[in-house]
Structures are given as C-alpha cells and as structure tokens.
C-alpha cells in the first residue's frame, strides 16, 4: 500500500461501514450490498461475488478492501494484476475480527477509532449465564448452516449459544431439518438468506428466533451493539 491512503474501494459491506464511520470521504467505491451508512454516496461496483474489476480500476483506488470468504480469489488476483493493492481480511473469531480491524484501520486512517475501542470493551467480559444449544441456518434450498470455525459461531458462543454443528468438517454444512443433533433452539438471521417469522420457523420442531444478520455476521461498528441486540432477540 502507499504510505498515504486517499482513495479506497471496499467490496465487503462490514468493512465499508468500518471505514465510513469516521472517514467516509476516503471511500470512492463500494458494492451494491454496502448499505451502511445509508447516506453513503459513492460509485457502486456490483456485488461481493461479481465486482466490476474494470470499473474499480478506473476509480484508481490506493487500496481495495476485501475478505477471503466473501470475495473470489480470481477477482482479487485480477485487481492485483492491474497493480492495485488489495487488503484481505479473514477473521474467524470476535477477537480476530477486532485485531484485524485495528490493523486495517491503523494502516488506512492512521489511528484506532473510538468505536473500535468501545467494541473491545463490549466483548471483553465472558458470558456468565445459562447456555443453550442451537442450529444456525444461513440458507434454504438447500438447507445450510454455520459449521466449524466461523465468526458468527464464535460470537454466539460468547452470549451463551453453542452451535451443535460446530464440529462439522465444513464451515457451512448442508443439513436435513429432520435429522439434526439435539438442540434447544434455531437461530434464523435475515441474511444472507432472508429468514423471517413467515419463512423458516415453520420447518423446525424446536423454538426459532429471528435475528439481525448484520449484528450476527458483520464485524465493524455493529459490534458495539451486537451483544445487546442479539441477546435481546434470543431471549
């Protein structure tokens, strides 16, 4: 990366929000899915899985911010092939996400914003209440759920929700709703699949709770309120 960053393209919604919270003026491009902040007016470069590489290059960014899971290697390599610096994050736990954000933001904006310090404080204390076992679907047709080594799974464990599929050999295994391990509840986020009270809970015998996908899966300023929001939605 150049020593001074003045132009950023972000192809990860949570990272767009992370930079825009204090330095929105640096962002010159973002995906169609970058919905926070709502008033962000920048060039849209399509989606996380199909970014417009030519358009991104035309924006002459100093760096493109990406994620190893959300973005495709072929697109990141294409950007690098055009001489563009690409910063790739890959956290699988809450602690890793906070450390990753600190490294990225320190390099781009030059310091650690107050919201990140606050998020560390929010997640510094362990859960001391009861624990419940859950299935956490992320897709329907086919049914898929959180499995091993996921950021969202670690976040839920920190508020007393243990993923019954965490020992799966896959990060996002397919499953049969009629052949699940014993569990207490089903956690249904509204993204990436838009589960809702009318779409999802009817399939499961156990109680289902619909939760905010942004607070469950995004790592950024949403971490400030995610613990309270999700704990309330899962009561």
From TrEMBL:
Name of this chain's protein: Cobalamin-binding protein
Top-level taxon of origin: Bacteria
Annotated family: Belongs to the bacterial solute-binding protein 8 family.
Organism (species): Kribbella pittospori
NCBIfam families: TroA_like
